[in-house]
Structures are given as C-alpha cells and as structure tokens.
Amino acid sequence: MSSSPVIDKIKEKLDIVDVVREYVPALKKAGRNYKANCPFHNEKTPSFNVSPDKQIFHCFGCGEGGDMFSFVMKIEGMTFPEAARKLALMAGVEYGDDRTHELTEADRERLELKKMLAFAASFYQKALFSEDGHKARLYLAERRLNKTTVERFGLGWAPAGGAALMQELKAKGWSRDLALKAGLVTEREGGRTGDTFRGRIMFPIKSQAGDAIAFGGRVLDPEAQPKYLNSPETVLFSKRRTLYGLHEALPEIRRSGRLLLLEGYMDVIGAHQHGVTWAVAPLGTSLTPEHASLIGRYAKDTVVMFDDDRAGIQASVRAAEVFMDAGLYVRLANLGTGQDPDEYLNDNGREKFEQVLAAASDPLDFRMDLFFKGRKTPPSSQEKAQAIAALLETVARQSDEILKSEWVKSVAGRFGVAEDSVLKQLRKAPGPDRRQERRPEKPAAPSRAMPALERGFLQLLLGDPSLIEQASALTPGDLSDPLARELFSALLALPAEKRGRAPAALAEALPERAGLIMELSVADISGETDGRQGAAGAVRMLRRFSLERRWKALKARLGSLTPAELEEFRQVTADLKASKEI
C-alpha cells in the first residue's frame, strides 16, 4: 500500500482491531491476536486472525490478508483512495483529493462506474418527479410511501423511451462500452444499444458504503414481463453477495444485533417507513451462503419473513437450511393473512407486526405447524411416517447437538411416537449435501514445504523486526528453502525506517507473496521463547545446517575439487569442528 504523511497519521490514530470490529462484531481475543469467522468466505471454525501488534489480518482458510486499508478495500469493494478517505474520516484526519496517482487502471474504471451509476440514480430520481413520472408517483402513493421515504431510498423512474439515459450518459462524455459494463445499457438485435431499464420504477441497489452499484426495476404495466428486473452482474455488483436495504439498516442492526429478512424492495421500504429499520432483502427469494455469511457478521437474532404464499413459505424453509448450513440460528415468521409485510404494516401498524416477529418459530416448529395447519382429523400412521422423514431432514442439518436433541423430542411429542424411533430414523436421514457448499479455493501454500526452523525464524523476524539486525549474521544462502531465502533477502534489504512495519513493507516489496507473508506474520508464537534468545539460537542452527549441507556437497566430489574448493572444504570442516558438530 502507498505511504504518505496522511496515511501514516491514519495508521497512528486507528487500530486495525477497531476497524475490523466495525464489520465483524464477533471478533474475539485469542492470545495476542483476535479471531472470528472469516467475512470473506463461509466457515464454521474461525480461521480469520487480526494482529494488533503488527496491524494486519490474515485468514488461514481463504488466504486473504493485509492491513486496515486492504481490509476496507476488500470488504467494501473500494479503491485505495476511497478506503483511505473512509479511514481518514474515522481517524479525524483531513484527506485531500489529489491522490489520483495511486489509482490503477482497474481502480479508475471502478471509480468511473460509480460516478456513472450515481448519475443514473440522479437521472431516474429527477424523472420520477417530472411530468413523465406521474403514473409512477401514483403507484407509490397507492403503496402508501411518503416523499421522505421515496427520497431516502432514492426511488426513481426509467422513461419508457429506448435511449433516454444513454443519450444523457453520452452527453456527459461517458462511453458506450463503460455504460455496458455498468449494466445501464444493453446491446439489442442488429448491434443497436438501448437503455436496460425502460418504463420501470427504479430501486437503486447500494453497497454497504452507500454507493449505487446496481438497480432493480418494476414495471407498471401488469402485462409486461419480467415484473422485476435487476442489473446484470458487474465488477461492482454480485447478486449473491448483496442485500437490498443493508446500507440503510446497518446502524440499527449493529446497535440491536437483530435483522429481519423480507422478500422484496417494497417490503423493505415499507418496513423502514414504519420504523422497522433492521429489514433487508435478498434480490429475489434465493438466499445464498454468501448472504448468510454477510448476515452472520452483524446479527445474532435473524428472522425470515417471506410472502404469505406457497412460494414464499417454501423459500423461507430453504433460507433456514442455508442459515443452518452456515452454523447460524434463525427463526421463521408468517403473517398468516395473505398480505405482504408492507400491506400488513399499513393496515395494522408496527406494534402488531413486531408481535408477529416475536412469535417467530424455529425452523422445525415452523414446518410442523405447516403440517398440522387446517387439519381436522389426526394424521394416519403412513402420513406421520412421511412427515417425520421430511422433518428429520431439517433436524439433520442442525449442527448444534443440544438443539438437535431437543428437536428430536419435539417431533416425538408432536406426532405421539417413541423418541427412540425418531432417533433411529434420524440416523437414516440425509444431511446437507456438503458437495454443494461453495468453498473458497485453498491458497497455494508453498510455506508448508518450508523447513520448520526456517519458517519459525521468519515468523520471529516478522513478529519482532528489531531482530532483523541480529539476523544479519546470516546470508540468504544459509537457508535451504528458495522461498525462505527470497523472504529473508527482502527483509534484510528493507530500509531501517520501514522495518518497524516489516510485514506490510515486505508485502509491498513482494506482492505476489503477500498471502504467505501475512500468514507468517499473524502466527502467534509469543510466550514460546524469548525473542532475542530464540533468534540467536536459530541463527546458530541455521548457520550450522548451512555448513553441513556445504560440507556434504563438497565431500561427495572430493576427488574432483579445484584447489579453491579444496581450501573451502578444509575451512568448512574446521568451522564444523569448532562448533563441535563433527
């Protein structure tokens, strides 16, 4: 990462632990480091480490690592200047706008895409309040949304003409290719290009930071299809990693630890208008493991309430399975009135709505209630067996063994069968198909082949850069592993002023080795040995092993050594004898 007086001042004023905890509230102290489930991939056992001593993070599961700037860039999808500006605000440091030299071509494109999308959001908003947006305003009024809510969520209108936005973008100097990359225009038959969204109410989809990264559009014409249309995937937008309304809901979610997952745009907007400001929605009803991981960062109490129809209920059950597979607790709520949440709130108010949320069931009770709902006669033995077999698929997904045991008792009691029979049947029930889980590719780990002594030696130096001077008694050639030699050589070459932050400085010097450097740096070896004594011992042993390797290589060619090599052999032999090792 770039360095400057401003960047250095940010680092002085902020602690990476505090920065990370803003996004990963579950971060807990573990020895000298802090640990949590990784926010960048799905996992049940924490492998994400933050080192306050070195001011870096590293995940041993997916290989992500870096300093606080890298963390914010990754988690917010920002360029370095954007992340620096955000951290400067947190630190109370003034950050200017004259740092464009730090931008890569990819960074410049991302910034232009964000500017273009922000302009599009403004364009759609103006269109909503123009004469052309009259019908759209009537529709929003029918849905009982007030102007404050409409403006807060940036709702807009995409004119029905084929190229109104594209013409405006062109007039602002943006290229057709960039507009295509933003998903704002689409190529049509014959090579023509037109606006992606036409004749639709527009819902800006925002990042956690509040930037418009995509759009959703709803048609007014009941005959038009599809009813809802989302932007295509872009470098800024991934549907499976984005929750609608999260930017607006995060303050309350962080404060209360609770999150309400609704089905669509209007549900979320209506909930917020009524004060239920912890509501979000996936973009469609298909919850993904990435969504669950994102929710798990912030919420301890998650309630799912999808639409009160067959599709919505099935989607609720599937969402619960995704949460359970991620090792998270979830409850399911159902209005039971046939209304959407925003309609229910309009008719009954927030207090009654929150009563429904408070009565939300765990996934097993929810499914059992569905089975018994509306039954006038007890189920037959065959119906019981079929229902229990289906319910045990939910029980089998539960990773909490205490809760699983309670669920077995609940099934047995509700259906009036022996608990032992339910347990026997549970052993036959299929668990979650782990092959379908999306796991990150394991990073290449050449460090695993590195000799333990050389690995530990590098960890000592990265943990306490003041030992680098002591280690200069060795040369890179004294290490046997090529990668260890490369890292040690780079450490020795670091200027004195950069050694205080050796891990970050080394990662800057060797970006292709950054993952390994962070992995070595966060290893908590404190308390195992005194740093200076450990380094001195490692230097002696590494030097001795180096002499032994050279002695064996020369001895193997003893009959063909040159005079210079023969003299070297004698010297190496003497050095080894002096160390009492031969």
Uncertain spans: 434-447
**Count of DSSP H/I helices:** 25
Number of strands: 16
The biggest sheet, with number of strands, parallel, antiparallel or mixed sense and barrel status, is: 5 strands, antiparallel
Arithmetic mean of pLDDT: 87
At the fold tier of CATH, the topology name of the largest domain is DNA primase DNAg catalytic core, N-terminal domain
Helix content: 40-55%
Strand content: 5-15%
The CATH architecture of the largest domain would be Alpha-Beta Complex
Strands of the widest sheet, in order across it, are: 1-2-3-4-5
Anisotropy-based shape: globular
CATH class of the largest domain: Alpha Beta
Rg, rounded, reads 30 Å
| CATH homology group of the largest domain | DNA primase, catalytic core, N-terminal domain
The rounded distance between the terminal residues' Cα atoms is 48 Å
Structure class? alpha+beta
Tally of separate domains: 5
Structural overview:
- This protein is of the alpha+beta class.
- It has 5 domains: 5-102, DNA Primase, Chain A, CATH 3.90.580.10; 105-237, DNA primase, catalytic core, N-terminal domain (DNA primase DNAg catalytic core, N-terminal domain, Alpha-Beta Complex); 241-360, Dna Topoisomerase Vi A Subunit, Chain: A, domain 2; 369-436, no CATH class; 446-578, DNAb Helicase, Chain A.
- Helix content is 51%, strand content 10%.
- The protein contains 25 helices and 16 strands.
- A 5-stranded antiparallel beta sheet has the order 1-2-3-4-5, with helices on both faces. Strands 12-14-13-15-16 form a 5-stranded mixed beta sheet, with helices on both faces.
- Helix 11 crosses helix 14 (341-358) and helix 19 packs across helix 23.
- The longest helix has 25 residues, at 531-555.
- The chain is globular and about 100 Å long.
